[in-house]
Specification:
With 474 residues, the protein is mostly helical. The protein has 18 helices and no strands. It is globular and about 60 Å long.
Length: 474
């Protein structure tokens, strides 16, 4: 089969127990997909419900209510690498199911939260469960996949992740029609179904070094560093970008990252092997994932805030208005494989970024305070959907398929962490711009110009880094 010859995963030894030992790949993909979809949906599904949450829980300040988003994004991004390392070391299936259990319980607690700050706490617990689920899910899936199908499985996994994240606002709009608490309650039956079916249907991947001691110091350093970076960006507009709190947080982040790198270089079993960053396709795609997550997250939030805040649409109407763009993502993800094979991931990513930027440019040119969805919002939404469908699965696939099998969970965790850091930066940057007083058209245009600039920066950086010298064969 020609796909096998080009599949770097299939060319290595299988991970874990041999696939197909009485277990259905379809069932495993469904169970893993449910967890991946839940965690990715929840990063953005709350966007649509945010105004309603603020109204019902007595917080009208966007900077305060935005912590419902940021608490999840900060902890999720900070804990991904330690969780991925645990999955590689001690077995992905167990880590995955523990993550699902924690995420499900936290979702129920979020739905019952009586005030904003308890909701923020429960969202943080939810993020811990999600951080365990996402990197472990790929290791579980590959253990259930025949070698010749692994590249296809990875593409399906990345397409599902991207589509779920993009569909969050649309589904959030439908659920919010029954009350904001439904955006959390929807996770409970899905999580319970996974916990019932998972132990019987999921294969048990072999741990890489189950007797080794986890790198607790490395995990603490990277968690604290990413958390401080996110905190500085999220609170920059409130504290002042030149305040001692922001500058101190950024300085501490730099110091902790330096200590983290130094520790990983010395440790026998580091939480993140630095050898991963020497794999050029992985490093380039991870950087591009971080950069593209900035405009992606800002675009999703801005479209919701515009529809609800400027056009005064209901959450349901907003969700339906946003839906056509996300519906383009799975279609383009499925068709993107041949394009990547023919033109390479860098060119496909650059093309996707250009299309995405064109969609935002359409909004800059046409969006007005008088609602005109077919002419103004819809074309831009479709273009951004095409751009995401070309870019996001390509970048995730390029990174994950370049790492060795015994590092799948850690590698996917690094990529996911990069995306979460970018999402935090995107949401915080947009909130900082929109917090300014003035004409809504002018304020939103400033935010959208920022989105265009960071999108084009993604294309330029990825083309430069990925093609500056040939990737070393491994």
């Amino acid at each position: 089969m020609s796909e096998l010859a080009s599949d770097p995963v299939a060319q290595r030894n299988s991970v874990g127990e041999p696939p197909g030992r009485g277990r259905s790949f379809g069932a495993a993909f469904l169970i893993v997909g449910a967890g991946v979809a839940m965690s990715n949906l929840d990063q953005f599904i709350v966007n649509v419900a945010l105004p309603q949450i603020g109204d019902h829980l007595g917080h009208s300040s966007l900077s305060s209510v935005s912590w419902v988003l940021n608490a999840y994004a900060v902890l999720f991004g900070a804990l991904l690498v330690p969780a991925g390392n645990l999955a590689d070391r001690f077995g992905a299936r167990g880590v995955y199911l523990i993550g699902v259990a924690g995420f499900t319980v936290a979702s129920l607690a979020c739905a019952l939260a009586p005030n904003v700050w308890l909701l923020v706490v429960f969202r943080a617990v939810q993020a811990v469960g999600a951080a365990a689920m996402v990197p472990a899910s790929l290791g579980v899936l590959l253990a259930a996949t025949p070698p010749q199908k692994r590249l296809t499985a990875i593409r399906g996994w990345t397409a599902l992740s991207g589509a779920a994240a993009a569909l969050g606002p649309a589904l959030g709009g439908l659920l919010t029609a029954g009350g904001w608490r439904w955006v959390f309650l929807i996770n409970v039956p899905i999580g319970l179904a996974v916990l019932v079916a998972g132990p019987a249907l999921l294969p048990k991947p072999a741990a890489r070094s189950g007797t080794g001691r986890p790198d607790l110091l490395g995990a603490a350093l990277v968690t604290a560093a990413i958390g401080l970076l996110s905190l500085a960006v999220v609170k920059g507009s409130d504290w002042g970008w030149t305040s001692a709190a922001v500058l101190g947080s950024l300085a501490a982040c730099v110091v902790l990252l330096g200590l983290f790198v130094a520790w990983c270089a010395r440790s026998a079993t580091p939480v993140m092997p630095l050898s991963l960053l020497r794999i050029r396709p992985f490093a380039a795609a991870s950087l591009a994932n971080l950069l593209f997550a900035v405009p992606f997250a800002a675009m999703l939030l801005s479209s919701v805030l515009w529809a609800e805040g400027v056009w005064h649409w209901s959450a349901m109407r907003t969700g339906l208005a946003v839906a056509p763009g996300p519906l383009m993502v799975p279609l383009l993800a499925a068709k993107g494989g041949p394009l990547v094979t023919r033109f390479g991931p860098a060119r496909v990513t650059a093309a996707g970024c250009v299309v995405f930027a064109a969609g935002i440019g359409w909004w800059i040119a046409t969006m007005r305070t008088a609602a005109d969805y077919p002419v103004a919002m819809l074309p831009g939404m479709l273009l951004t959907g095409v751009g995401v469908g070309l870019t996001l699965p390509t970048l995730i696939g390029a990174a994950v398929t370049s790492v060795p099998p015994d590092r799948f969970a850690t590698g996917s965790a690094v990529v996911s962490m990069a995306r979460q850091v970018g999402a935090v930066l995107g949401v915080a940057g947009l909130v900082a711009v929109l917090a300014r007083s003035g004409d809504p058209e002018q304020v939103f245009r400033q935010g959208w110009w920022l989105v265009v600039a960071t999108t084009l920066l993604t294309a330029v950086v990825y083309l430069a880094v990925a093609r500056s010298r040939p990737a070393a064969s491994r």
